[in-house]
Write a structure and sequence with these properties.
heterodimer, A: alpha/beta, 7-stranded mixed sheet, B: alpha/beta, 2 domains, 8-stranded mixed sheet, 16 strands, 21% strand
Chain lengths: 434, 373
Amino acid sequence: MNSLLNDERPPLLCPGCTHERITHMLDQAFQHMGLAGHQVVIVSDIGCSGLFDTFFHTHAMHGLHGRALSYATGLKMARPELKVVVTMGDGGQGIGGAHLLAACRRNIDLTLLILNNFNFGMTGGQFSATTPTGAQVGSGFLNQLERPLDICEVARSAGAPYVHRCSGFDKDLPAKIQSAVEYEGFSVMDIWGICPGRYTKKNRLTPKMIDDLLAKLPPMTGVIPENGRLEYAQHYRRLAATQKKVPAPAVIRKQFKAPQAGRQEVILLGSAGQRIITAGEILCIAGLTAGLNTTQKNEYNITVLRGPSISELILSPEEIDFTGIDNPTAVAALDQEGVDRRRDLFARLSKDALIIQTSGVTLPNNKARIHRVDLKAQNIRRPDWALASLAVLARLEKAIRTEMLEAALKIRFKGKTLTSSLDLIRRVEIGEGV
Amino acid sequence: MAYSLLEGNEAIARGAVAAGCRFFAGYPITPATTIYQSMLNLLPPLGGICLQGEDEIASIGFCLGASMAGLKVMTATSGPGISLYSENISFAIGSEIPIVIIDVQRLGPSTGSATRGADGDINFLRWGSSGGLPVIVLAPVDVKDCFELTLHAFNLAEEFRCPVFVASNKEIGMTRESIDLKRLKTPAIIKRRAAPTHQPLLPFHVEPEQQVPNFLPIGAKVLVRQTSSTHGADGYITTDPVAISRNQERLKQKLLSAVDRFSFHEIHRTRNADTLLIAYGVSARAAKAVFKEQMRRDKPISLLILKTLWPVPENAIRQAARMARRIVVVEMNLGQYVREIERILHDKAVVFCGQMDGQLITPAQITEAIENE
């Protein structure tokens, strides 16, 4: 078969660099597999291993340090038929550690060749994640402080189904690379080599020494049976095919007349867990059933079931510009946390404004019309209070009517949720004006 | 008339799908998460791909790989994620990889406030990449813009082969609004121009009369080289200062020379108005309320709402400001874009109205800035 080496750009590496041997071995592996250049993409990043994409007459993508696996993942998902070979050094493995872990967990069909020569060659021989503690490198004493990483143990425990550790001087390296590339899933090869430009200037390391060091480590020879599983891209497609198409957003026609003619501003002041945001959405949908423009602006803390939750709602026959509410026509005071967050608002309320005050909530001074309702005494659960307050608004014909609210519930909910929410708004006793 | 109720983030996702986006990768972050959720609902049933990266760096990396494979791609995040995207944004700029990046801005600096709005990333989006070359930034005002500008963002990314940002805001992305879907304007969909396939590809060769190289995907018959290194037309490293300089200049000019074609804006000009109000993003809604109120009060002003922020639509701004003596610039930050306005309209009095406290700028605050001379 034909070589995929790029005749016009022969490897440009230091004399004696193991990378050059690996270049030829990789080419032999491609040849044995009978691959044409367009069937392969070499993805590389920064460092001497980042020159690999230029040595081959294949597709190529060369990017930022440690990120090669991320580009490769996008390429493989988009073009599952491509053989994707990623070359990284021990430097790229270190900076891209999170990507290596994720790739092992994901098991997408990429082949990662880590050209491990125990230091950062290009930048002056600084220590990498695999530099031995006793080595003399370009980082002064700092490498004495950090324990080198066993890439293969990490890859195995992160779930890689194929992990192979070997020397760049192995005679059968092409067959080993071929086996890794042909494996259907994420395969990692930790290939040890010599960096004559930097590392071996001060540290003795020979092919024989590499063999001896490797012999002391537990063997890693490819398939890790306990990590074997369905390849990610295939698995993704299998699961994606079962997903149901999402319908277009509901289109809501005008069927009712709003109780008031002009713009209505409603604010729901509650706390997390009261389904304030859902109630706000329902109020907006109710507005749509009367042909009104609506906006819903929400405020809550990042905590999920704690803290104030506020929804500001505008229903208007006119186009709505500013979405904030300064002077609402109706306020639902559902929890002290929400009321306290907007204390300033109460002094501004006009005497025409309506406050629905649930029991247990203390209101700041105000001139508005107050309507008290004891939802607890009616055995209504706190998560339903916001919806119950909409029922009270509707019954009092403020901003919405009951038929608007019922129509909104029918648009928003289905099945049991619809039945129980309709039941709720029908059974709420609306309390009394003060 | 019949309305739907949609939040800005969902409108962006639906706009992306309408533009032909079939690859999304993101990482959860408030207030952008619902874009990811919407894409996860929308893409798989269409045969598209939606991934959650191990971090933001991986998410944009996935997108760049998929874009080079020929797909239309998008990612979405907020300020902290844009920080992590930075190195790959530079890659997309320098190596001409089409991508749409949504920034649903939240109050910064740093992790700031996840659920409070801001327009604090406006200069960061422009300048937050190494090399300082221009990018395109579009700024929606409402749900309708979220849909329409996302379509334009894809068209621009494809045409110019560059990252295009949509600078949204928590107060747009997570605000629901009634919208008449039938009235949405969908531009003709543009795809990146393909190179001929009967000959080897010079991946960064630019044809005469063009400013953007033709594209072929990685993975098809013709070999494609992509590199983040300083490259010549062949996609290999070059050290030739003439070739380098010509390429950098082209990367700059391909956007700057074309901005008049995509200077999205809304102008409400009033005869004899002394003051021009300039606003963008969610603050433009308060500005519009002020514009209408000033008309009612018989103290008319003019209003310019910018929807293309970068490259600066200088001609549109100059044209809008021709008759004005005084310019009031409204921004939900401590003064970023106002510097561009001062630069362009250096012969006018420029007043800044801004704040950075997680609250919307109110119409009353803008009115005060207009009336306080």
